[in-house]
Structure formats: C-alpha cells, structure tokens
Amino acid sequence: QVQLVESGGGLVQAGGSLRLSCAASGRTFRRATMGWFRQAPGKEREFVAAIRWSSGITDYADSVKGRFTISRDNTKNTVYLQMNSLKAEDTAVYYCAAVMTYFDSRTGVADHDAYDYWGQGTQVTVSS
C-alpha cells in the first residue's frame, strides 16, 4: 500500500523559506511522477510542481517558477519542495501526490485527477 507522508510546513514571514518533505513508501517509485499541489481556503486545489522519478525532469506552475524547487532523493525515497521568497499568497495546505505513470507532457502532470495517491497535507502559512 502506497503511503505518502508530508512534513516541513509551518509559519514563516514573507520573503522567508521552507522545505517540505514527502516520504514515499509501499512500492517502487522508479516509474512514478511525483507532484506537489496546494489548496488555499475557499479555492480549488492547484498544481505547484512535479518531478519524474526516473529522469528528474521537473515542471512548475508559473506562480512559483524561479522561487520553488522540486527534487528527489532516491536513497531515501523522498521528494522535497524547497520554497524560497515566500509570499502571503503561497499560504495553503500543501499535498504530495504520486501516480505510477511517466508523463511526457506538462498537461497531464498538472492535472490533480491524474494522481492516485495523496498525503495528508501540511499547512504552510506566510505572514505579510
């Protein structure tokens, strides 16, 4: 059974940084695409970033490009989201997600319905 466990959320001032972690277990993720999504109060869940586990190819939402970096550590089966220059509008619950598919296009990667497994979420609050 696939399990995704997020950690690293918290309260930070605008301009600050946080690193989220997603520990994955339950099966091999060699062919997986891992994603980070977020959901702010009253808003729909939105794509943040994704990485193909085998190749390391990444995609980002325009709103976080240049500020956030997604990466993975194969030895620890963990995906990270390094968030720099945080803004108040980054405040949300951040979710890690996985799907056992290698996406060739960004369109599939950004579709939350494409992901089969989800973590419980971790709160990120950015104070202005």
List keywords for this structure.
48% strand; mainly beta; 128 residues; single chain; four-stranded antiparallel sheet; 3% helix
What does this protein look like?
The protein has 128 residues and is mainly beta. 3% of the residues lie in helices and 48% in strands. The strands form 2 sheets. Strands 2, 4, 5, 6, 9, 10 and 11 form a 7-stranded mixed β-sheet that branches. The longest helix is centred in the C-terminal third of the chain and has 4 residues, at 106-109. It is globular, with a radius of gyration of 13 Å. The model has no long low-confidence stretch (mean pLDDT 95).
Structure at a glance:
This protein has 128 residues and is mainly β. Helices cover 3% and strands 48% of the residues. It is built from 1 helix and 11 strands, in the order βββββββββαββ.
Structural class: mainly beta
**Rough outline:** globular
Unreliable runs, pLDDT <50, ≥5 residues? none
In terms of quaternary structure, what is this?
single chain
What is the topological layout?
Elements: E1 3-7, E2 10-13, E3 18-25, E4 33-39, E5 46-52, E6 58-60, E7 68-73, E8 78-83, E9 92-99, H1 106-109, E10 117-118, E11 122-127
Parallel strand pairs: 2-11
Antiparallel strand pairs: 1-3, 3-8, 4-5, 4-9, 5-6, 7-8, 9-10, 9-11
